[in-house]
Structure formats: C-alpha cells, structure tokens
Amino acid sequence: MQSLTRITRNPEAMGGKPCIRGMRVTVGTIVGLMASGHSKSDILEAYPYLEEADIYEALAYAAWRAEE
Questions:
Q1: Which residues are CB-contacts of 15 (< 8 A; sequence separation ≥ 6)?
Q2: Residue 37 CB partners (closer than 8 Å, separation 6+)
Q3: Using CA atoms, how far apart are residues 29 and 32, in angstroms rounded to an integer?
Q4: Closest C-alpha among 42, 11, 39, 8 to residue 25
Q5: Taking the model in full, what pTM does it have?
Q6: What would the pLDDT profile of 7-60 be if each residue is shown by its tens digit?
Q7: Which region holds residue 16: left if phi is over 0, alpha if psi is between -120 and 50, else beta?
Q8: From CA 35, how far away is CA 43, in angstroms rounded?
Q9: Other beta carbons less than 10 A from residue 10's beta carbon
Q10: Do the beta carbons of residue 33 and residue 43 sit within 8 Å?
C-alpha cells in the first residue's frame, strides 16, 4: 500500500474517523458522495478547501480498507 499522506486520524476529532488532512471531512463523506453519484467537481464545489488529490486518496484508502 502506498503511503497515504492526506489521510489523518485524531481520536479527538470526528470520533477518530479517518479524515482529509486533519479537516473535519471524513473519508466516509467523500466515498459516500461519490457512491451516490456526485462528481469530483461537485465535491470540490461543495468543499472548496479540498483538492482533487484528497478525493483520490480517500478512494484509495477506502479500497485498501475494503480489502483488509
């Protein structure tokens, strides 16, 4: 598994769920939005402080966890 530098976990933020770069946006939020049909552009518009690489890393993290 490649190093995932954009995924962080802090037990005191968002219940310790994996988040994007320490922000209060969880991997689950990103994956859920993608799964419900939202595009990368939709997500980046809704969360302008995210970067496209954040979305790809959230998906990579979710895929890795699904295989664990």
A1: none
A2: none
A3: 5
A4: 8
A5: 0.91
A6: 999 999 999 999 999 999 999 999 999 999 999 999 999 999 999 999 999 999
A7: left
A8: 12
A9: 12
A10: yes
